[in-house]
Automatic annotation (TrEMBL):
Protein family: Belongs to the SMG9 family.
Record keywords, A-Z: Nonsense-mediated mRNA decay
InterPro entries: P-loop_NTPase, SMG8-like, SMG9
GO terms (BP aspect): nuclear-transcribed mRNA catabolic process, nonsense-mediated decay
Identification of the protein by name: Protein SMG9
Source organism: Hypothenemus hampei
């Protein structure tokens, strides 16, 4: 698979096109990502799905990095303009462009899927609490009919759709990444807690119910130098620890930076009880190697995040062992259950 494909588009799970890329293999892991608009969800997945992060890859992925490196490598770039190594990297997941923002559009619509060679399935979800999503639902009556129940009011349809997608990912993923680009947005936390509350229990043909909850990792994208200090990281951990204390999502499984295995100073002694909080730095300063950044390079942090994801304990999604192909069929059943669930309609009635 060279590019991400559509898993859910216009409220329909596309099983036909994806079956060819899946195997009868039980040793796989599913990683989903959610977040608000423009926080870097697709960028994070591009970093995780890339085998090696090169300079050309970073230039194509990060506009700010490309601009900052121009002063240092202007001559080199223009003299090697036609060199094959300078050809723009083709991203697996489409990232938001300036044109998308100007036209009030999202780079990701629905849920995209990408399967790596080492059998990791990445799911990229459209942003929740997005004006662009609501605008699209208002313009397209067919899409609104396919996705949202008739009893949900138009102004609340965008948020309900986001809750359905998030509840779906909580049911079919081993790990769920929640991406933010600042600390902290109370609306994001409320949204995740609401999706967990509304997530329906999935039954199998034997009428056995399975209530699966994935590992939850909070990703702080575009983190600044101060965020990597033990004092600030301790504050961030304590806030998230209190907010998700009663959650059934697996938030205390040592998949963040607070374990001390990635950055020595960010350990339980300095930062308190570790939660799954991971920081990805702002790359605008990456080219200035002579400046102290206060954190390891981007490449090293992404490598550590990969190791945490791929080494996480995979709790079974169902009572029956799933292969990649049967997981896709399970996705179809989960999505139908989510769409027909009365919980979302009842919740919409309580919304202002």
């Amino acid at each position: 698979m060279k590019k991400a494909l559509k898993l859910i588009d216009d409220g329909v799970v596309n099983t036909e096109f994806i079956q060819d890329y899946l195997q009868e293999n039980i040793d796989f892991i599913v990683v989903g990502v959610v977040g608000a608009q423009g926080v870097g969800k697709s960028t994070i997945l591009n970093l995780l799905s890339e085998n090696k992060i090169t300079e050309s890859f970073k230039r194509s992925l990060f506009k700010s990095y490309s601009d900052s490196s121009m002063d240092f490598e202007t001559i080199k770039i223009f003299t090697q303009k036609h060199d094959e190594s300078q050809v723009e990297h083709s991203n697996i997941f489409k990232i938001e462009s300036q044109e998308d923002m100007e036209n009030c559009m999202n780079a990701t619509q629905g849920i995209d899927i990408y399967v790596t060679s080492n059998r990791v399935i990445f799911l990229d979800c459209q942003p929740f609490l997005s004006v662009a999503v609501l605008d699209e639902l208002i313009e397209s009556e067919n899409k609104r009919t396919n996705l949202i129940n008739d009893f949900v009011s138009l102004e609340n349809s965008g948020e309900i759709q986001g809750l359905q997608y998030t509840a779906f990912l909580m049911s079919v993923c081993h790990i769920l990444l929640v991406v933010q680009d600042w600390f902290f947005d109370s609306n994001i936390v409320r949204f995740i807690q609401t999706a967990e509350m509304l997530k329906p229990t999935i039954s199998n043909p034997e009428d056995e119910y399975c209530d699966h909850f994935p590992h939850l990792i909070m990703i702080q994208n575009r983190a600044q130098m101060a965020d990597f200090t033990p004092k600030q990281y301790k504050v961030m951990q304590k806030v998230y620890d209190n907010l998700f204390k009663k959650s059934k999502l697996q938030f205390h499984t040592n998949l963040g930076l607070g374990s001390g295995r990635v950055i020595n100073t960010l350990n339980p002694e300095n930062c308190g009880n570790p939660v799954n909080l991971f920081l990805i730095p702002d790359v605008s300063d990456e080219s200035e190697n002579y400046i102290y950044r206060g954190h390891p390079p981007l490449e090293e942090l992404v490598k550590k995040l990969k190791a945490n994801l791929f080494g996480a304990i995979e709790n079974p999604l169902t009572h029956v062992q799933l292969t990649e192909k049967t997981w896709l069929l399970y996705c179809n059943r989960v999505w139908e259950t989510v769409k027909k669930s009365p919980f979302f309609v009842e919740y919409a009635k309580l919304m202002p």
